[in-house]
Design a protein that fits this description.
Blueprint: E1 35-44, E2 48-57, E3 66-75, H1 82-88, E4 90-91, E5 95-99, H2 103-115, E6 129-133, H3 148-156, E7 175-176, E8 179-180, E9 183-191, E10 196-205, E11 211-213, E12 216-218, E13 237-243, H4 249-261, H5 263-266, E14 275-282, H6 301-321, E15 325-326, E16 332-333, H7 338-345
Parallel strand pairs: 5-6, 13-14
Antiparallel strand pairs: 1-2, 2-5, 3-4, 3-14, 7-8, 9-10, 10-13, 11-12, 15-16
Helix pairs in contact: 2-3, 4-6
């Protein structure tokens, strides 16, 4: 476990806003009531820059699943548990994000953690959900550094409130769009068929393409960085969305699609080797007398817009809050620098 990373400006700190909808208090996934986030960050320079991020909805378990949907924009990835979500439309564990070759150990650790909790006391079947990105450019991915104790630490320390971004947890060794990247998050609040609801998203950004900010392309060379460009071997982005809006699994799948589409706004290339996934879950009860009615499909446009805006802003936050990292093979990636970016945009 490491101390909190150095605080760096987020997109809104620089006056760069995306869309017109207001954010929640923390402008993070945790603005959705009942959702916590935790990280375990593993840094042993220059060999290891890796970790695991845990997204923990309150009370989720095999006996108390949440409605969920999943979408693969390009399926070159190892999203463990995806087929059961697609088939049943339910999420029954927290969601973990980690390094590609550590995903399988993380899934086993997640199963053990759930089985030992009251929510899993009677479980004879369990669908752990683990997403991944390849951090092999800046970390020794073959060493599979993420172990059971790291997964349990991320789950046990998951908290409400501000979410650490950049080079933390499952984003520690990642790059995107030619820059150092990692974890980014954002949220939106909006009326939906009456009540005001919250949508929160978190990205694990590691994809290729050319960054776009306010409609213009931004390369590393444009902001005074070495023009190393995106690594052609690397790719992928996991986008996790949560909402307290009363949506069913089919509608959440529609929302998950928009989360993947939104990456194009930031410049994603959706290359051959990129695993681009959206996973969306709801936090409220459905189908019970106490639960709200599912909102009509023809009222979802504002929610889709919120998803596009929040994902785009999350990617910017991941690039801005990261820190310069050199990997075991001499490769270095730099974050998106705030001042040169503002000068370029002006």
């Amino acid at each position: 476990m490491l101390p909190p990373p150095i605080s760096r400006p987020r997109s809104r700190d620089l006056g760069i806003t995306v869309g017109e909808l207001p954010t929640g208090r923390y402008n993070a996934l945790t603005d959705v009531p009942g959702v916590r986030v935790g990280h375990t960050t593993l840094i042993r320079p220059p060999r290891v820059h890796s970790g695991v991020t845990a997204i923990v909805p309150d009370g989720v378990g095999p006996g108390s699943p949440l409605s969920a949907g999943v979408f693969a924009g390009n399926g070159y990835g190892k999203l463990i548990g995806a087929t059961q979500i697609a088939e049943l439309g339910t999420l029954e564990t927290p969601v973990l994000l980690t390094s590609t070759l550590s995903a399988f150990r993380a899934a086993d650790a997640l199963v053990g953690w759930v089985l030992q909790r009251p929510e899993g006391a009677d479980a004879r079947s369990l669908n752990p959900v683990v997403g991944e990105c390849n951090d092999g450019l800046l970390s020794d991915i073959r060493s599979r550094p993420v172990r059971e104790e790291h997964v349990r630490a991320a789950l046990d320390t998951a908290s409400y409130g501000p979410v650490a971004e950049g080079c933390v947890g499952g984003g520690t060794g990642l790059t995107a769009l030619g820059f150092k990247a990692g974890i980014g998050t954002s949220s939106r609040r909006l009326p939906l068929a009456g009540p005001v609801i919250t949508l929160g998203v978190l990205v694990q950004a590691n994809f290729g393409g050319t960054l776009r900010v306010r409609g213009r392309t931004v390369t590393p060379a444009d902001v005074g960085l070495p023009a190393e460009g995106p690594d052609p071997r690397a790719g992928s982005c996991m986008v996790v969305a949560a909402t307290d809006a009363p949506l069913d699994a089919r509608q959440l799948t529609r929302l998950a699609r928009r989360c993947v589409y939104a990456l194009a706004r930031a410049g994603a290339a959706y290359g051959h080797g990129s695993g681009d996934y959206g996973l969306a879950f709801g936090t409220g009860p459905l189908g019970t007398p106490a639960g709200p009615a599912v909102v009509p499909d023809d009222t979802l446009d504002a929610l889709f817009t919120a998803a596009l805006d929040a994902v785009e802003e999350s990617v910017l936050n991941a690039l801005l809050t990261a820190t310069t990292t050199t990997g075991p093979y001499g490769d270095t990636r730099h974050p998106l620098p705030a001042r040169p970016l503002l000068a370029l945009l002006e």
